[in-house]
Amino acid sequence: MRVIALFLCAFGLILAQERDGNFDIRFEPTAKMQTGVEVPFTITVRDPRHQPLPNAKVTLQIETKDGTDVKVFPAPSTEPGTYIAKPVFPHP
């Protein structure tokens, strides 16, 4: 009986591993681009079967051209497969 329980636990861990995938990720601002204020971006994530990807950890990263100033903004879920990030773009 213990062998069966061990097998079921191992099988569950195998299925829970992260996998590479061919995800579709689309993002677009939902307001006019401005500096110094939050600009909401809608981010849509779909799995390889083109189904919405729920409960993903999504962030939006912005940085300067030379890579010296990097900022990461969390994108919480608003509905399955849809996330909203609100980056603040610095003044030039």
3D architecture notes:
The protein has one domain. It has one helix and six strands. It has one helix spanning 2-15, and strands spanning 24-29, 41-46, 59-63, 70-74, 77-79, 82-85. The protein starts with a helix and ends in a 7-residue tail after the last strand. The mean pLDDT is 83.
Question: Key features?
Answer:
92 residues, alpha+beta, 4-stranded antiparallel beta sheet, two-stranded antiparallel ribbon, 1 helix, 6 strands, 15% helix
Tell me, rounded to a whole number, the average pLDDT. 83
Order of helices and strands: HEEEEEE
Straight-line distance between termini: 67 Å
Number of helices: 1
Largest sheet: 4 strands, antiparallel
- The 3D shape can be described as globular
Radius of gyration: 19 Å
Helix content: 10-25%
Write the layout of secondary structure elements.
Layout: H1 2-15, E1 24-29, E2 41-46, E3 59-63, E4 70-74, E5 77-79, E6 82-85
Antiparallel strand pairs: 1-2, 2-6, 3-4, 5-6
What's this, in brief?
This protein has one helix at 2-15, and strands at 24-29, 41-46, 59-63, 70-74, 77-79, 82-85.
